[in-house]
Amino acid sequence: MISGKFAISIHILTLLAKFPDEYLSSEFIASSINLNPVLVRKEIANLKKNQIVMSKEGKNGGTKLNISPSKVTLKQIFESTFEEISLGFSKNEPNPKCPVGKEINQNLSALYTTLNDSVMKQLEATTLEEFANKF
Amino acid sequence: MISGKFAISIHILTLLAKFPDEYLSSEFIASSINLNPVLVRKEIANLKKNQIVMSKEGKNGGTKLNISPSKVTLKQIFESTFEEISLGFSKNEPNPKCPVGKEINQNLSALYTTLNDSVMKQLEATTLEEFANKF
DNA sequence: AAATTTGTAACATAATTTATTACAGTATGA
DNA sequence: TCATACTGTAATAAATTATGTTACAAATTT
Fold it and tell me: Any transmembrane segments, and where (chains A, B) (predicted)?
C-alpha cells in the first residue's frame, strides 16, 4: 500500500495553478479531491514548509501558489510529501549472524538509492505548469 | 507504506544463489529473514509461478533455484511480487464535475507508467547473480 | 461583533500487512 | 511400514498504517 499524499498534493497544486490569483479554501479543494478538508490542510502544511504555497487565515482566506507553476517541479512536490521511492524492506531485523541477513538491507538501500535518483531526475524534468496544462 | 515482498523475495533468492545445490527449508530461510516460515512459503509460491524456483515436499524437502542466477533479473523478481511502482492515488473517486478531478487519475497514471518503465529497465539490467555477488 | 476560514490536536475507523495456528498431503529413510 | 520432517494452504488474529471525524482556538474580513 502506498499513501495518496503525492496524488493529493499534485491535485491541490493543479487546482491552484488553474486559479492563479484566488485563495482557494480547503473545502473547495476537498470537494474536487473528494477528501476531508482537514487532510487537505495537512498536505497544504507540507507544501508550505517548502514555500510552494502560501495561505491566509480568516474569512475569505485560503491557499494560493507562492511561486510560478513554471518554477515548481514534480520533484519538489514529491519531496514535500516526505515519501521515498523504495521497493520496501522486510519489517524485522534480519539475522545478523547470517552473511546474507547481515548485509541485505544495506544492499537493498544502495539499489533503491539508484532507482530513486533516476525517478527524481524524471520528476525534476516536469514542471507543475506542464502537468497542469494537460487538463 | 510499501510491503516487504520484494525484499523478502530477493532475500530468499540470494540465499538460494549462495547454496546452489541444496534444498533450503522455509524455516532456515525464515530464520535469516527473521520472518514467519509461512510467509516465506507464500513468497516462494509466487516465485514458483514464474518458474524461478522449484520446491520439493516431504522430508529433506525445500526450495532451490530453477534457473541460473545469471539468467534471472531483478525485474523478474519484482514482477513475481505483483507489485507496481506508483506514487499513489487518492483513495476516493475525485469529483467528476471538476475539470481537474475528472482527469487527475488518468494524468497520474500516465506519469506513473513512464516512471515504471524506467525503473523496470534498471531492474532488468541487474541479475540475481550480480546482486548476490555483493555479499 | 458576526461570519468564515486556517491550524492543529485528539481520537475513531478502515484497510493493509504481518503473524500465528492448524492440518492435510508428500517424500525420506530407519 | 511407520515416524519424521518437510511443503501448501486456509483461516484467523494482531499489528501497523492510512484515512476520516470532531472539536475548537486563532486569525481575518466585512
Answer: none
Single pTM value for the model = 0.92
What confidence tens digit (pLDDT) does each residue in B106-128 have?
999 999 999 999 999 999 999 99
A122 near B CB under 8 A: yes
The residue ranges of every structural domain in chain A are 5-132
| Chain A residues with CB-CB distance to B124 below 8 A | none
Q: Answer for A36: CB within 7 Å of strand C.
A: no
Residue B57 C-alpha, separation from nearest chain A C-alpha, in angstroms = 25
How far CA B134 is from CA of A8, A35, A82, B24, B129, in Å, comes to: 39, 45, 30, 21, 9
For the stretch B6-37, pLDDT in tens is 999 999 999 999 999 899 999 999 999 999 99
The DSSP bridge partners found for residue A55 are: A63
User: Between B32, B100, B103, which is nearest A101 by CB?
Assistant: B32
Query: Cell 539499489 appears where?
Result: A111
- Chain A residues with CB under 8 Å of B119 CB are 85, 115, 118-119
Architecture of domain A5-132: Orthogonal Bundle (1.10)
Q: For residue A119, give the 3-state DSSP assignment.
A: helix
In window 34-53 of B, residues with CB < 7 A from nucleic chain D are: 37-38, 41-42, 44-45, 48
Element of type H or E holding B65: strand B62-65
